[in-house]
Design brief:
This protein is mainly beta and 354 residues long. Helix content is 11%, strand content 40%. The chain has two domains: 168 residues, no CATH class; 156 residues, no CATH class. Strands 3-4-5-6 form a four-stranded antiparallel beta sheet, with no helix packed on it. A hairpin with a 2-residue loop joins strand 3 and strand 4. The longest helix is centred in the first third of the chain and has 19 residues. The protein is globular and about 55 Å long. The two termini are 38 Å apart.
């Protein structure tokens, strides 16, 4: 009975947030990119060592607002919280403690923030952490949002829903899935999700599929990378994103200096079409200290600028414009580079955050 009550409560909560934010899809086209949040890092830092720097905001242009997280308490700002997700003007920050995981959600525009209660002990005492994300934000003047934490118990995923309103929050644990299984080592999964075409995706290394979560139904599934993007490239790493113009779901891969991007065919659920293919040899040659064998695709720019991010071992972080063919080093004003991941931050049509 407890499992049934939890499922019913989750459905009611989902419907309430959906009804309060139903206009988001209609207004998404009018929002504008303000810049990016990330943890700046040294180019010489070993690539797999997390950056210890505080999160910063990199404005898109001189006219963009200069946002920061200096409104957080000194304890929250310096005690090990790291950026974990960005959605509808909210940032999700995570900290690992001896007692488990803590989540801090903030809005850099309104400068409001909430420290969520600790996860229930059952979340990690018998399970392993896989990922977390902001699911939705309620419309109106209040500070109300919904988040999710995903854990795995044996091979069964379990969702933990958090909702918060004006500083008050709580967690609800759904029963472990009965019909969906995790078929790969958890160490292969990226904890940070990617948002694309209305769903959340977690990339899985050494796997031809990504883990997908529908934020409306809370259903998990697998999405296989289309053969168009990798079948003759020897199965390179691929990234999921959205096409710049119309926001269609797309996959990109970079292998042997060839960048390939394919997108879901308009009006199709399973059909894919090759959108872009370009050789980056000339662009890479313009960066004299960048060995070609140490680069890989970081992400499709979540800001939908038509760029992709390219990472390298010890040689910096780059953006490549698929329209102009220009390769730019992603450096900050003080000579550091953008950290990974990079979270796009948008404005809302009403001048607030989206």
């Amino acid at each position: 009975m407890a499992a049934v009550r939890a499922a019913v409560a989750a459905c009611r909560l989902t419907r309430r947030f959906l009804s309060s934010s139903s206009s988001s899809s209609a207004t998404s086209a009018s929002r504008s990119l303000l810049g990016y949040f990330h943890h700046p890092t040294s180019t010489a830092r070993p690539i797999m060592v997390p950056s210890a720097s505080a999160p910063v905001f990199q404005p898109l242009s001189a006219g963009s607002p200069r946002l920061s997280l200096d409104f957080l308490s000194a304890d929250a700002a310096t005690s090990g919280f790291t950026l974990f997700d960005s959605h509808r003007g909210l940032l999700l920050l995570l900290k690992e403690t001896g007692a488990g995981l803590r989540f801090l959600v903030c809005d850099p525009v309104s400068r409001r923030h909430t420290l969520l209660p600790s996860l229930p002990a059952a979340a990690l005492s018998a399970g392993e952490f896989l990922g977390a994300a902001i699911l939705s934000r309620a419309a109106g003047s209040g500070f109300e949002f919904r988040a999710v934490c995903l854990t795995v118990h044996a091979d069964r995923p379990r969702l933990w829903l958090a909702w918060s309103r004006d500083g008050e929050g709580s967690w609800l644990g759904l029963p472990p899935s009965r019909d969906f299984r995790i078929k790969w080592p958890l160490s292969w999964a990226e904890n940070h999700c990617v948002r694309a075409a209305g769903s959340l995706y977690w990339h899985i290394s050494n796997n031809d599929s990504a883990l997908a979560l529908d934020p409306n139904t809370l259903q998990l599934s697998y999405l296989r990378a289309p053969p168009l993007v990798w079948d003759d490239l020897g199965f390179p790493n691929y990234r999921i994103g959205e096409t710049p113009g119309d926001g269609r779901l797309c996959f990109a891969a970079l292998e042997s200096q060839v960048l390939r991007l394919c997108a879901r065919r308009a009006g199709s659920v399973d059909g894919w079409v090759l959108e872009r293919e370009a050789s980056l040899a000339e662009a890479f040659d313009s960066v004299t200290d960048l060995p070609m064998d140490c680069t890989w695709l970081g992400n499709i720019d979540p800001g939908r600028t038509g760029k992709v991010f390219i990472r390298s071992f010890g040689h910096g972080h780059f953006s490549y414009d698929m329209d102009t063919g220009k390769l730019d080093r992603l450096t900050t004003d003080d000579g550091q580079e953008y950290g990974h991941p990079i979270f796009a931050y948008f404005s809302a049509p009403d001048g607030g955050s989206d």
